[in-house]
Design goal:
InterPro entries: CYP11_CYP27_families (IPR050479), Cyt_P450 (IPR001128), Cyt_P450_CS (IPR017972), Cyt_P450_E_grp-I (IPR002401), Cyt_P450_sf (IPR036396). This protein has 553 residues and is of the alpha+beta class. It has 21 helices and twelve strands. The structure holds protoporphyrin IX containing FE.
Length: 553
């Protein structure tokens, strides 16, 4: 039996009976005719269906939705019902899941491209049910801005279901990324004043500069005879880990040392595998909740290791703080969280491990894409180098004040995110009914901004496939597009809490790298793929050469 047929059989025959506890249905012939044969059983499953999730009192996830192709009529001012939102037709329960398994069809690893293609076909607002996820995808910035205005005090983002299920099984706090409502607000308030204020992040500019400087020296040491860096991705992961360590623990983790800490290397290895496996688990039917699938077993193994090692880092520091160990200097961030009476010790550990996990994968992939774009665009690189050299003496410290004089550095990062938005869609679950593009979208709907689609839309960004940081310079930029570019960090009270930190470390390292190396790329083009965040689909073989062939850092 082919993989698709086997999956269809599970979905149409086995799953309903497992999920509803009812008899197995013999329905495959009807399924192929697209008859909505499971309607009765679906309704009977009601809110007990394990494929549905309830978040902050709103039910999200599976909904029986036949799909329609009706296009919105711009002359019709009446708000049309949700059923009329255009979108691909799917089967009951599985929706359009099989479209993602067809030969030459859409792929989970290319969801950003699937969203782009669907929006070209169905317009600026469409809906789709992919396995357990029903989503409304918006590709018009003005329409998505309505979602921003409606998100309320406790915005709800769809949980990362495998992550939540794992933590629930193990009795671990959900952490900042996945908690909701008051619990989320409590953790968020405690952390945000340390992370979102420029002044707070600026205090770490000196140690972050030192890490960047060390990383540049490290790169120089490990370039091979072709001036390429074998395993560049892992080396950049080390930098990201070392950098967040200076903030969370105010000490060096040792990733860039001659003999790097085995613990840190293991953390990196397990974290990479953890994110790679999460992508297919998020979109497939959560069969892992019923059978312990092989993929789930692997994911669980890596998650166990990430949590174990993450906790070792955090607990070591917490213990040193509690014991007043003079050889282990205190971390202001952790000390203050521990002193916060609204947070339990488990909250503090959960949050610190979350930050560690969120920081490494995101910033390292952002940097990889940035280096790739620069290596492919020598004129941009040269302009960037000129700007940095005019402002910064080699080994100079970059602070937020220095960065005010480096607009092109910022523009390069923005343009990288436009070309390769590592978070290709940002989302909310609606707290109340909302009109979008002339349709009524009911409370509880999962609405996503199709960032990749919008960033590659020639009407918004002329020559969208060209890397042109100039678009983002003052005077050239449409203010509406500026706010669109900010969506890479999410929005409102729940936007990325690491934004200030990430921008600072990326601007800083980018500046140091172009001051030291000329980057070039002579191999075949790299394509984006999803390992939860957008990553290059093959090892990046960038050439790093120094001006004189001599390293002078
Ligand atoms: C290139 C770097 C990064 C990008 C593009 C990025 C992007 C995002 C996005 C889009 C969200 C969802 C926001 C929303 O729903 O409105 C998010 C949430 C989050 N990010 Fe980042 N992020 C980055 C780096 C970091 C770093 C360095 C940290 C930690 C130091 C971090 C920690 C978090 C946390 C904890 C959340 C959950 C916040 C909450 O739900 O309250 N991120 N990030």
């Amino acid at each position: 039996m082919s993989k698709i047929k086997a999956a269809q059989r599970i979905a149409t025959k086995v799953m309903p009976s497992i999920l509803s506890g009812q008899r197995t249905l013999s329905t495959s012939a009807k399924a192929q005719q697209g008859v909505h044969f499971l309607e009765m059983d679906v309704q009977a499953m009601g809110k007990h269906c394990p494929l549905r999730a309830t978040v902050d009192g709103l039910t999200i996830g599976f909904e029986h939705n036949p799909g329609t192709n009706i296009q919105p009529d711009s002359h019709d001012t009446e708000i049309k019902p949700f059923d009329h939102v255009p979108g691909p037709k799917g089967f009951p329960i599985v929706g359009t899941l099989f479209d993602y398994f067809k030969k030459d069809g859409l792929r989970f690893s290319k969801m950003f491209e699937a969203y782009r293609q669907r929006s070209l076909q169905y317009g600026p607002l469409y809906k789709e049910q992919i396995g357990p996820i029903q989503t409304v995808v918006v590709s018009d910035p003005t329409e998505y801005s309505k979602v921003l205005r409606a998100e309320g005090r406790h915005p709800v983002r769809r949980e990362m279901e495998p992550m939540v299920y794992y933590r629930q099984q193990k009795g671990i706090d959900l952490g900042l990324v996945n908690s909701q409502g008051e619990g989320w607000h409590r953790q968020r308030t405690a952390v945000s004043k340390h992370m979102l204020k420029l002044k707070a992040v600026n205090q770490f500019s000196q140690p972050m500069n030192t890490v960047a400087q060390d990383f540049v020296a490290h790169l120089n040491e490990i370039t091979d005879s072709n001036n390429e860096v074998p395993g560049l991705e892992t080396e950049i992961f080390k930098w990201a880990m070392e950098s967040i360590g200076t903030f969370l623990f105010e000490e060096r983790i040792g990733c860039l040392a001659k003999n790097p800490s085995g613990l840190a290397q293991n953390f990196i290895y397990h974290l990479q595998s953890y994110f790679r496996l999460m992508q297919p688990l998020m979109y497939n039917l959560p069969i892992y909740k019923i059978f312990r699938t092989q993929r789930w077993a692997q994911y669980e193994h890596h998650a166990d290791q990430v949590m174990r090692i993450g906790r070792i880092f955090v607990d070591k520091k917490v213990q040193a703080l509690q014991e007043g160990d003079p050889s282990n200097p205190p971390s202001a961030f952790l000390s203050e969280l521990l002193a916060n009476e609204n947070l339990s010790a488990a909250d503090v550990t959960g949050t610190a491990v979350d930050l560690l996990m969120a920081a490494v994968e995101t910033t390292s992939n952002a940097l990889l894409w940035c280096l790739y774009c620069l290596a492919k665009n020598p004129e941009v690189q040269e302009r960037l180098r000129r700007e940095v050299n005019d402002v910064l003496v080699p080994e100079g410290t970059i602070t937020s004040e220095t960065l005010a004089d480096l607009p092109y550095v910022k523009a390069v990062l923005k343009e990288t995110f436009r070309m390769y938005p590592i978070t290709y869609a940002t989302s909310r679950i609606l707290p109340a009914d909302l009109e979008l593009a002339g349709y009524n979208i009911p409370a509880g709907s999962h609405v996503q901004a199709n960032l990749y689609g919008m960033f590659r839309d020639p009407e918004l960004f002329p020559d969208p496939h060209q890397f042109r940081p100039e678009r983002w310079l003052r005077g050239n930029m449409d203010p509406k597009l500026k706010s669109l570019s900010n969506l890479i960090w999410g929005h409102g009270p729940r936007m990325c809490i690491g934004r200030r930190f990430a921008e600072m470390e990326l601007h800083l390292l980018l500046s140091k790298i172009v001051q030291t190396f000329k980057l070039s790329y002579t191999h075949e083009d790299v394509e984006p793929t999803l390992n939860t965040v957008m990553t290059p689909d093959r090892p990046l073989r960038i050439t790093f050469t120094t001006e004189s062939g001599q390293f002078s850092c």
